[in-house]
Amino acid sequence: MPQTAGFFYRQAMEERGHAMMMVQYLLDQGEAVAIPGVAAPVTDFADVVAPIRLALEQEQRVTEQINDLTKIARDEADYASDQFMQWFIKEQVEEVATMSDLLAVAFRSRENVELLEEYILREQQGEPEDPTAPPEAGAAG
Ligand SMILES: [Fe+2]
Ligand SMILES: [Fe+2]
């Protein structure tokens, strides 16, 4: 399933970019950067729907975490961090919507995964450059 694999390879790079935005923000604020280890990913799935359902659940959890961080910034009257988080709030709306769409298509395509492949080829070939995105640590320029 090269299209679906390509989608998730692109998504992994995008997520790395989001993490590096947060790293750059902490550096800009003169804060210490501590990146904890992550648990090994789940790699064994019963069918084509299961990994996409897991991805959607992760996006929903990330949305909660982004909202929690924004609330902390507001409670602390940390207006710069509040503003920094606004981009991620918007981004999570997009990420949850994209993964919800993908899950719906995967469910309908579970008997014929070529339909999922064709959907990704047609509709999910990456996002346009976002000039409002925060800078990433280590990015050129
Ligand atoms: Fe995400
Ligand atoms: Fe995104």
Automatic annotation (TrEMBL):
One Pfam family recorded for the sequence: Ferritin
InterPro entries: Ferritin, Ferritin-like, Ferritin-like_diiron, Ferritin-like_SF, Ferritin_DPS_dom, Ferritin_prok
Domain of life: Bacteria
Ranges where the record places region Disordered: 122-141
PROSITE patterns named among the record's database cross-references: FERRITIN_LIKE
Keywords assigned by UniProt, alphabetized: Iron, Iron storage, Metal-binding, Oxidoreductase
Residue intervals of the Ferritin-like diiron domain: 1-110
Protein name according to UniProt: Ferritin
Source organism of the structure: Georgenia deserti
Organism taxonomic ancestry: Bacteria, Bacillati, Actinomycetota, Actinomycetes, Micrococcales
